[in-house]
Amino acid sequence: MDYIIVAHNYGDVQYGTLQSDTVPSLASRVKNMLMIRNPRCVAYDLLFGCPGWNEGMIQAYAFIKSGIAQRCLVVGAETLSRVVDHYDRDSMIYADGAGAVVVEATSTDQGILSFESATYAFEEAGYLNFGSSYAREMDTNTRYIKMKGRKIYEFALDKVPLAMQICLKKENIPIEAIKKILIHQANEKMDDAILTRFYALYDMAPPLNIMPMCIHKLGNSSVATIPTLYDFITHGKIDNHSLNTGDIILFASVGAGMNINAFAYRV
Fold first, then answer.
1. pTM value surpassing 0.70
2. How far is residue 144's CA from residue 102's CA, in Å, rounded to a whole number?
3. Residue 118 φ then ψ, to 5°
4. Which of 3, 10, 22, 138 falls 20 to 30 Å from 246 in CA-CA distance?
């Protein structure tokens, strides 16, 4: 293993506490638990909001494409249940989860075909942040995950479809070639709207059965939503959704930063 990339946002939050522990890094802890002795296996954390796992995949691809790596472990893990304000209805759908993949060099035409990534950090930077509980009796110095839901919704509908389109344009991938679209599982209504906006860029309506969802089962586990969704599909755990060798799928995400990204991948 040449790189271990662990995407998260809040570090190791021990059960029963709200304090984040990031020393040593979570990637170093993963390497330690895997008992990897090779010091040239570089382990680092990636904080990129909910699109963190996607960005880890993009970085792994860049390492392999440049020839400096042959194999990378990309992990997305989060325990949002430990940083939510129980008096905030916007927190009800947050969840815990983790997903990991090993990305390897290949001589086939499989793997990442193109990607797009961006950070909007002017007025958008504070759309997701840490803030006090809505309960007046709670300690105001204790912070919880907070979001400006309407702002995020509008931002996602405006920026994510364009990022998806740019991603395809970079390799002249026709939209008709896309077999599945895996979007960060933050809000099913928002994902449906992103999908509609994306196909509207091509003057088309979304095809039936192209966007699998697992939020109703697993909730919003931030960086873990897309790898766990992918795992569900590959193991036949989502009705009427499957993947075949050679299929091109499009991954996309949006989250704190505000960050967005997308990558096209051939199975």
1. yes
2. 32
3. -155, 155
4. 3
